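WARN no homologs supplied; continuing
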Amino acid sequence: MELKVQKREKYPKNIKLVRKQSLIPGIVYGKHMKESVQVVFDKNEFIKLYKNAGSSSVIDLVGDHKEMVLIYDFQVNTVTNNLLHADFLAVTANEVVSAQVPVVLTGESPLVKVNEGRVELVRDRIEVTALPKDLPREIVLDISHIVSLDQGIFVRDLNLGDKVQIDADPDLSIVVAVAVQAVEVEEVITPETTTEAEAPAAE
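OK structure emitted
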């Protein structure tokens, strides 16, 4: 997967003018780089790439700056939800790196089907360490085998292979089963249900 980038210096210093061209600023940095590099890239291309790669898949920057990177972080406007900036962590093929891998649930628990409980994801990312090519894009957990409220999925239950090290406490919960709480319905007094004695006196 590739993302074309251009040098930031080719564009106006006013970042608003850059974003009006559907370009987003970013920075590339890594242990093997002497200094960080400022770049710009197409917003739509980045969004498409992130949907496919996530934050733990290696992508290749091409164009004005060539580098193998991970999408380390990005900032989004909390009001408009527009992408504002991205950080790229440069890596090398033989360099062990850490990444936060998203957890994805699949299947349906029988608890939900019989309305006895629900399954909650309490940890949506797990930190792992591996060579760039061995980093998993996501961790898929099947919850269809959770049939009782005392069951769950813990870090110790994960099996990501010999090439991936999990950097989390084995006893941490990832998925838990929670009982469905009975909802108490309170009586709502409406004008129609107000008795004559309860009605306020007319002035």
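The longest strand covers residues 67-76.
OK
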